[in-house]
Inverse folding.
């Protein structure tokens, strides 16, 4: 392309990206969020709440023929997928009940060894006071060890919070079955009212809250037995009682989304919504703790990390609701199960193909492969539009969807005259990635829930906004896009060999410099807003990294040297922007804040240091627990060394790339973002890993295009 064509292309891509992101922002502002918003909060109506814990209960267990009672509860009540995550990724039945009792992720072990088949010992004591229906007191011998283990874990769960809160407010809690006793116990591991009977133990009018263990649901037969017992229970419930049926644990040694439904007579039916997940149809066990307390008329204490659920009205049939629950659970479970296999096989195939294409000198093929790899992340998000999780072979459907979507990205990237420029196709793919991930975050993050590169809600780390993997993709693609477009707008302003003419103090910038600064500035504002806004990305750690990287890139686009004073000003600006976003979130009501506002509150309360240390412990712990993460660290160090030491052997391999305007400055900005993002996020190595993958794929595509363009020019001149 000519210089003027370069600039027209750059402005066109810039305009399309800005227009699409602004359109998504306007749609979100007008209420067009895919995830929806909260509905009517469940409030206390009667004096009794009955919780039936059915560890392992999944949406696939619920059918009209085999579980008619559950089917009707879903149709007449409100239901959702349940994230049961305890202190470990696999949640045993005892862990699930302890998590319900603590209102925070917990586990029934003190040495890290899980035995999901074990039922902890509960020792019956004297008759309860007041003595009712034959109840006794009980103690849990292993309790003290669990408390000590909880204190050593980062989340510091306070076991027995549910029982303590109810007792402090003059309410009583009754446990039916040893596992239910774990949820009903107080802080010392004592249960005031206990019976060995399980689901059959319910008696009306005995306690404000009754916890009943229904046993582990391992298959359809177990679900049918549960259903028959629920039918008997419903006949005994008072008219104003609220029933909660929850699959509190995983099963088959596999983490996944379980089922939960809340029912009471003549309630408004619908979908459960949680302010902690910000997703309709997805709640956490800790939300159930807060909900049970609220239904009993008790204010949830600060130790409960969940929030009371609300009900989004929904007029769908029971079949449609069950189908939606199965769909969401299947997509989330499938994304979790297939993430490592698909990524692992894909990386091996890509490396093998890259080797073959390089050895055979097929630079056009190398370029297409680089573009395809660069397009993989956005394709992985867009794949959520295709119900690949349905059917007998989800891995095959997902793989085909990914191949088709990557092919579409590459076809678009190579469709116009911009393909003749080394950076043209890469800029198109970067633009599509920014739009796909940015729009998804703005509109509620539904694609991120079901993507193999999404937030992975089963781990209960994030359910909305910008997760670490998504941030690495979004930030690197956004910085690449800004740098590549600014470089195209700088065509003709470079010194021989590709080095920029540094602006002298007091000199006026030319129009092409100003255009580059404008592009970096406008795209930068959008990137930071999308990532850091409490309503969208709600990402605190990523904002300073982005602001610093954009500041460096903006200086480079303006041909202004980086000095110590300017570096300090950029760092200060990053902190100010992050603080403003955090303060804006803190101003919102407590039950609508994200972790940004909660961190601001922790600063006020004096607990900020504990949070920082916990995140640092998690970040460093990943390097110990997952040695493969050191691969990303080594690659990061090698690339930084190559960029900063151009005369070294790795540096000399990259030298042809630096002839492209602003590319070296763009890479430096990306690397700065990755290093700071790693330092400020609790699982920051994920930012580094996926960010480097995007950067390396882009470098391969640009290098191959650069060689092809040089080769064509030499052929014409010869």
């Amino acid at each position: 392309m000519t210089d003027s064509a370069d600039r027209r292309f750059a402005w066109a891509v810039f305009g399309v990206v800005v227009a699409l992101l602004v359109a998504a922002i306007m749609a979100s502002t007008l209420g067009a969020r895919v995830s929806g918003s909260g509905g009517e909060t469940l409030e206390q109506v009667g004096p009794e709440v009955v919780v039936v814990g059915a560890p392992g209960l999944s949406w696939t267990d619920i059918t009209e023929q085999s579980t008619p009672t559950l089917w009707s509860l879903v149709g007449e009540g409100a239901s959702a997928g349940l994230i049961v995550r305890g202190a470990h990724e696999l949640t045993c039945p005892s862990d699930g009940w302890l998590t319900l009792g603590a209102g925070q992720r917990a586990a029934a072990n003190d040495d890290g060894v899980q035995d999901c088949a074990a039922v902890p010992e509960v020792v019956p004591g004297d008759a309860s006071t007041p003595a009712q229906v034959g109840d006794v007191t009980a103690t849990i011998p292993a309790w003290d060890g669990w408390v000590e283990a909880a204190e050593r874990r980062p989340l510091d769960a306070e076991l027995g919070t549910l029982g303590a809160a109810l007792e402090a407010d003059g309410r009583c809690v009754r446990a039916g079955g040893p596992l239910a006793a774990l949820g009903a116990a107080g802080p010392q591991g004592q249960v005031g009212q206990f019976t060995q009977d399980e689901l059959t133990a319910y008696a009306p009018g005995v306690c404000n809250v009754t916890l009943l263990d229904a046993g582990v649901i391992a298959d359809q037969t177990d679900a049918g037995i549960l259903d028959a017992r629920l039918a008997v229970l419903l006949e005994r419930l008072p008219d104003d009682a609220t029933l909660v049926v929850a699959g509190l644990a995983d099963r088959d040694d596999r983490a996944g989304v379980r089922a939960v439904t809340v029912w009471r007579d003549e309630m408004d039916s619908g979908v459960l919504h949680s302010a902690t997940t910000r997703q309709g149809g997805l709640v956490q066990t800790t939300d159930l703790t807060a909900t049970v307390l609220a239904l009993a008329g008790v204010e949830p204490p600060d130790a409960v990390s969940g929030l009371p659920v609300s009900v989004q009205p929904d007029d769908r049939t029971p079949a449609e609701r069950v189908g939606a629950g199965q769909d969401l659970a299947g997509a989330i479970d499938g994304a979790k199960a297939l993430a490592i296999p698909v990524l692992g096989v894909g990386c091996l195939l890509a490396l093998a193909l890259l080797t073959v294409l390089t050895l055979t000198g097929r630079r056009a093929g190398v370029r297409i492969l680089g573009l395809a790899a660069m397009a993989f992340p956005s394709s992985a998000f867009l794949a959520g539009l295709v119900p690949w999780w349905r059917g007998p072979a989800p891995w095959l459907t997902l793989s085909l969807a990914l191949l088709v979507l990557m092919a579409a990205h590459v076809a678009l990237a190579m469709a116009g005259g911009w393909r003749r420029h080394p950076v043209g196709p890469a800029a198109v793919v970067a633009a599509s990635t920014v739009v796909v991930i940015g729009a998804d975050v703005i509109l509620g993050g539904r694609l991120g829930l079901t993507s193999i590169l999404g937030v992975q809600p089963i781990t209960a780390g994030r359910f909305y906004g910008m997760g670490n993997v998504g941030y690495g993709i979004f930030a690197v693609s956004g910085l690449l896009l800004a740098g590549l477009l600014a470089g195209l707008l700088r065509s003709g302003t470079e010194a021989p060999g590709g080095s920029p003419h540094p602006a002298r103090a007091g000199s006026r910038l030319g129009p092409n410099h100003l255009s580059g600064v404008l592009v970096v500035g406008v795209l930068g504002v959008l990137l930071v807003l999308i990532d850091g806004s409490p309503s969208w990305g709600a990402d605190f750690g990523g904002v300073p990294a982005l602001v610093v990287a954009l500041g460096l890139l903006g200086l480079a686009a303006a041909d202004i040297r980086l000095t110590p004073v300017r570096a300090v000003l950029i760092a200060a600006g990053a902190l100010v922007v992050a603080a403003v976003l955090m303060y804006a979130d803190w101003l919102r009501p407590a039950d609508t804040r994200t972790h940004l506002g909660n961190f601001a509150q922790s600063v006020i309360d004096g607990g900020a240091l504990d949070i920082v240390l916990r995140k640092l412990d998690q970040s460093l712990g990943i390097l110990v627990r997952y040695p493969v993460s050191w691969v990303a660290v080594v690659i990061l160090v090698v690339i930084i060394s190559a960029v900063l030491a151009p005369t070294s052997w790795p540096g000399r391999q990259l030298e042809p790339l630096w002839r492209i305007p602003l590319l070296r400055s763009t890479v430096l900005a990306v690397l700065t973002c990755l290093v700071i993002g790693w330092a400020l996020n609790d699982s920051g190595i994920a930012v580094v890993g996926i960010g480097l993958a995007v950067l390396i794929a882009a470098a391969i595509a640009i290098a191959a295009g650069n060689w092809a363009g040089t080769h064509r020019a030499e052929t014409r001149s010869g």
